[in-house]
Amino acid sequence: MKLKTLTTAILFATLPATSVFAAALDRSGQSMAAFLQPNNYFEAGISILDPTVEGVESGETPTRRNIEDMADDYYFPSAALKLQLTDNISFGLLYDQPFGAKAAYHGENAFVSHPGADTVLPQQKLDALADAGKAKIQAYMQSDAAKQAIGALMQKGLSQADATNAVLKEASKPLVALATGLADANASLGKGNTNVEVDTQNLSLVFGFQPTKNINLYAGGVYQTIKGNVNLRGTAYSLYNGYDANIKETGGTGWLAGAAYQIPEIALKASITYRSEIDHDVNAVERLSVESALDRHPAVLAGLGVTAEQITAMKTPGKTTITTPQSVNLDFQTGIMENTVAFANLRWVNWKDFAIRPYKFGKVSEAIGNLVNRPNGFNLVEYSDDQYSVTAGVGRKLNDKWAGNVSVGWDSGAGNPVSTLGPTEGYWNAGLGVQYSPTPATFIAGGVKYFWLGDADAQTGAQAGESHRKVASFSDSNAIAYGLKIGYKF
């Protein structure tokens, strides 16, 4: 069937807010649709997300307070230029912001500091340390060594009671030093609220080769920047209550490759695009607010079983590596009747192999790992599953100036439990878009999507990998996304 004058490729740009709230840190969806437009083409757009993510303390958090909306609004732009240099060669320049996060906790909960009440370790851990210290002292006082020490003091003229008290006082010094140091460390914990902001930018240079009018082979390089800030606060993070990381903007390179097949007469187009992972060796400026207190009281780290080598490693600067994930996009569209097309997008992102472990954060986690059954340390953020998402819909040209579409989408999420810094698991969504073309060469498109975000249990880095552990639960979350895009064919 021939779709007459329907500008099919542009019709699918009707709803700019295509992903904006996907699994893990995924934002833009990394579409190649602009590069696959016919002839010369330019577009620019902006997407805005307004999420609501609320929950309640649960699991290992001893209280059960409500958690106010912790998901901040955000927006991100996109732009693309595609040039058909010859009948067989095309060039594209694509800009987007593929990954990111923005969230902040508020109110009275385990993710907001409570000076005077927060502790560097959960109270049960501190009680266990105190009980172990007392048991050690009792065992020593019953030993031959203690009896000999008491006897030696009695020979110097002390009574048995005074000699026993003197030996007991000496044996208790490590426990007293530990208690004093822990009190100082507790007073040094962070103030404020947990928040995170991560931003990335992608610039892709793509060349395409069209051996026939039906086939398009393309590949190119990708330059990506990343920057961010993380501040951990509250009892949920124990020793890390007061941890700050500032990731200065740095760049890395990767590549993409794909192929497309089309039959313009029936608006059929199918494409598959692979994007590589990208490594970033970032300069993460890290600070742990209890560090000075631990320096003043070496008995604390000694009492926690931290070795001298581990202390040295904690203080030695080092690089942090962040690797953004590889992905595959599969896009399909076809005419189903005159002036009407059906379309679908499938996306896979390799979040299962993604993790962020800032250098000092990691060294501290290795030093205290035995206390939380993680002897090899743990990550700040990690995910247990890959992301799969599907969007499908129908677009229709209403007349020479107006077109619209409707769509539905599903996202698997990247595993549950999830990070406390992004506590949702996947979504369902429904979208509506409209496009106005004042001239055959230009259009303005707008769209809106509503997201039903998946319920999720949230866990800290120290709990990740153990599905039964959590510190909070989030349910009935939602988001609404808006998009605006302009385009020009020339």
TrEMBL record:
Example GO molecular function: long-chain fatty acid transporting porin activity
GO cellular component terms, A-Z: cell outer membrane
Family matches, as Gene3D superfamilies: Outer membrane protein transport protein (OMPP1/FadL/TodX) (2.40.160.60)
Sorted UniProt keywords: Cell outer membrane, Membrane, Signal, Transmembrane, Transmembrane beta strand
Topological type in the membrane: Multi-pass membrane protein
Major site of localization recorded for this protein: membrane
Transmembrane segments: none
InterPro entries: OMPP1/FadL/TodX
Domain of life where this protein originates: Bacteria
Signal peptide: 1-22
Entry's localization field: Cell outer membrane
Family: Belongs to the OmpP1/FadL family.
Protein name: Long-chain fatty acid transporter
Organism name: Acinetobacter defluvii
